[in-house]
Structure formats: structure tokens, C-alpha cells
Amino acid sequence: MTERPFTPPYPAPLAKKPGLLRRFYLGWWKSWLDMLHGRAYTMKLGVTQLPAGRAFMVNDMALVGRVLGDATQFPKHRMVHDMLAPMIGNSVFVSNGEEWAHQRAMINPAFVHTNLKRAFPLMAAATRDMIGRMRGQADAAGGRAVDVDPLMTHVTADVIFRTIFSVELGEAEAGAVYRAFGEYQSVSQRAHLLRMYRLPGFGLGRRAWRLGERVRAVFAPIVEARVAQGRSGERRDILDALLDARHPVSGAGFTSDELVDQLALIFLAGHETTATSLGWALYLLSECPEMQERLHGEIEAATGGGALEYEHVKALEGVRNLYREALRLYPPVGFLPRTSEVSMTMRDKRIAAGELMLVAPWLVHRNPGNWACPHAFAPDRFATPEGAEALKEAWIPFGKGERICIGAGFAQQEAALILAEVIRHFRLEYPAGRRRPEVVARLTLRPRDGFGLVLRAR
Q: Could you say which residues bind heme here (predicted)?
């Protein structure tokens, strides 16, 4: 049975492109998504003039493939470093050229610890602990809504913490990360907006660095202790592998500060994007009780009523399609900034070297030229030939090309496991009379006021 699709919330497109003042107002009080006008969803290549320069929006799939597929000609724009440096330093996510290539060569061996079968027991243990926390909060709520956003942040941060450091992430530390990074997103966005308009920073930059230090302080002592202790025995986690890593040219290892930078990236990228997409997936499920029951039946058929094992997750195609559709509608990173390394012409537009080029998964995923009924929630679309083709060509929540997210498979397995366990243990309801979540695009696509859902134990 196929449930009737519904259209979940998204910012209504503006009737026309906003002017500079309107754009600033929307960016300050809302987010970048609210600046989009109707034609942005169908245009091939748009251009916007800002005080700090021009921004080109790349929305044609051939051009998207060209920009994301050539990291030499289209490296990451400096805004990526400006927005993330207080949190992740000059790690592999923000570096370019030879520096990026050398860092990537050093960290690649560490990702053996994210091998899906090897990591599964860590994911399963963290998920069991999450179900216990959800039961406790559901009981305490007594039928009232529970905010699942911090719960998803805790479990995904716990998974990556166990993978990096071989220790669990406690309640206090998870709460500190959730609050600090939530505030950091707002501060970083506004600081960037001021830079784009060539306005003073009003102390937002210093505030961003303080918030970054609060998050890094959760794990920096672990790194320092392991560096002081030195390596012994087999590699048991990502930190051990990074302690062993050597520069391919100089032979030098990472310094303590460089280790913290790389681990901050792995920690944040490994949990934040998955957490926000899981929150959206659970919200979407809460609007579709029939789908919940169908997926519950799929899970029980695969497991025979027993524990969810590694082999079962691969068989849960309905659950995997639910997550794919959540990532399509609400890609955690809505915009991928690149820069043109040399002057060029695209679609009769002259682009100077160094200008900002934006590939927007949000727009690619909602372009009617790429997807049928693009704003509708319809996970079954991926079971059709057209949907399967669009999945290969126009589904880019993890990016594309040589800088595609190295943890894409890890994230999708983790998400399928977490969603399946939530569906097994709870029926989700969206509270009657509550406003639908408002999408806010900062560093990731978060709900403005969390995801308040009623959790009813099965």
C-alpha cells in the first residue's frame, strides 16, 4: 500500500528576487532559504550581487557535476573556512589543494574504523541506550510532546564518540555539545552575513571562537591524555590511527592541535548532519501513521521479532527509502560553496577568478526538472525506475566528486538502525494544534524550535 503523499513545511518562495536590504533582513532574522524566489528552483545558473561580490547559484545538473567534480578548478570557497574554523580549525574539510590531499592521505587509514560491519556493534549499543532515554522521557512526559532533536544529537554523537575514542558520551557532555553548537550556528551565520555586507562583526567572531572552544573542550582532554600516554598495542579506534598517521612528504605526525582539529571535524561531521536528518525523518513519520505500521511490519519480518543485526539493516529497503527521502527534502547542508580558480564563461555569464559559486542540494532536490512532485514526501518514489535514476543523478546530500563525504555509508547505516529501533519501540504522533516545524538553514537545516513529538510505547 502506498500512503497518500503530503507536503511538509518549507519556506514559501518569494515572488521575485529580493533587494539588498530585504535579503539582509531575511538572512538575519530567518535564514538563507527565506531569500529564495520562485525562479531559483528552476533556473540553470543565477547570479546575485552582494557588497562583497557576486554569488553564482549553480542549479543545472551538468554544471553541478562540473563544479563538484573538479576540486582543483573549483576548490572550496574561503567562506567555508571562515564559518567553520572556530570549530574545526584548518582540518581536511576546509583545506584545499596539496594541503587537502596530504591531510586526506593521513586520515584515510583511520576510516577503517568506520567499516560498516566493524562499527555496527558500537552503533547498536548507543542505539539501545537511546531507546532507554526515550522511554524515560516518554514516561515523564505523560502523553505530552518530547523534543527528539537533542535525543538524536546525543545518540549520533555517542556513536561517533565511541568510534573515535572508545568511550561513551555522557548526558552532560551531549547536552553541552547540543547547546553550544546550536548557538554557534546562529552566531556563525550572522557573522558571515555581516562579512558579505562588509559590515563590522560586532564581536560575533570572538563569540564564535568561544563557542567552538566549548565543543572542543568535550574531547580535547581525551586527546591530550592519549598523546601523553603514547601508542601501545593494536589500533582500537580512530584516535589511535591518527596518532600513527604520517605526512606523505615530510613524514611528520599530527601535532596535538592538528589532532584536535581533525577530530573536531570527524566528531561534528559524524553526528550533526545525521542528527538533523534523523529529526526530520521522525517528524515526517509522525505525520504518516500508516507508513509507521508498514515499516514496523517490514522490520519484524526481517528480524523475526529478534534483535536487529547487521544483516537485517541492509534488507530494510522501506526504512532506507524513508531516510533517503528525508535527506532529499531536508539535506543537512543546504549549500556547498565553491570558488572559481580561473576566469571562465558558463551559460553566457562571465565568471571572474575567485568568485563565489554555490551548489545547493536544497534546490537540486526540489527542482521539478529532477524530481516529480519535488516538495511532496514520497519515499516510495525510490522504488520506481524514475526515482532510482534521480537517486543516482540528482541526489547529493553528501556532495559529489572527489570531495564527497567519506562517511556517507556510515551515516546511512547508522540512520537506518536508529530509525528502525525507534519504529519498533514507539508510535510517533505530531501534537494536535502545534505549528509545523519551521526550517532554518544555517550551517545545517535545523527546525527553529525543535521537533516536539508524542512518543507512545508499543
A: 405
Q: What pLDDT does 343 receive?
A: 96
Q: Which residues are paired to 336 by β-bridges? A: 359
Sign, Cα dihedral of 260, 261, 263, 267: positive
Closest CA to 395 of 428, 367, 426, 418: 367
The residue count for the chain: 458
Please give the pLDDT value at position 233: 65
Calculate ∠ Cα 162-241-417, nearest 5°. 35
455: β partners: 428
d(CA 12, CA 15): 9
Q: Minimal CA–CA distance to 44: which of 32, 29, 30, 59?
A: 59
* Residue 157 backbone phi and psi in degrees, to 5: -70, -35
The answer to whether the annotation marks 373 as part of a ligand binding site is no
Q: What residues form DSSP beta bridges with 76?
A: 338
Which CA distances in Å does 262 have to 93, 270, 342? 9, 12, 29
Which are the contacts of 406, defined by CB distance < 8 A and separation ≥ 6?
Answer: 108, 111
- H-helix or E-strand spanning residue 422: helix 408-425
Residue 115 grid coordinates: 567499516
- Taking alpha carbons only, the member of 242, 247, 206 closest to residue 222 is 242
d(CA 401, CA 404): 5
User: Could you give the C-alpha distances from 44 to 47, 338, 376, in angstroms and in order?
Assistant: 10, 17, 22
Quote the pLDDT of residue 115: 84
* 146, 150, 152, 154 alpha-carbon torsion, rounded to 10°: -130
Is residue 58 helix, strand or coil? strand
Distance CA 321, CA 298 (A): 12
Q: What is the dihedral of CA 51, 342, 441, 91, to 10 degrees?
A: -120
| Helix, strand and coil in the chain, % to nearest 5 | 55, 10, 35
Spatial contact of 263 and 239, defined as CB atoms under 8 Å apart: yes
CATH class of 20-457: mainly alpha
Walk along the chain (458 residues) in steps of 10 and give the mean pLDDT of each run: 78 94 94 94 94 95 95 92 89 89 88 86 96 96 95 95 90 89 91 93 92 89 83 76 90 89 88 95 97 97 94 95 98 94 95 96 97 96 95 95 90 96 97 93 91 96
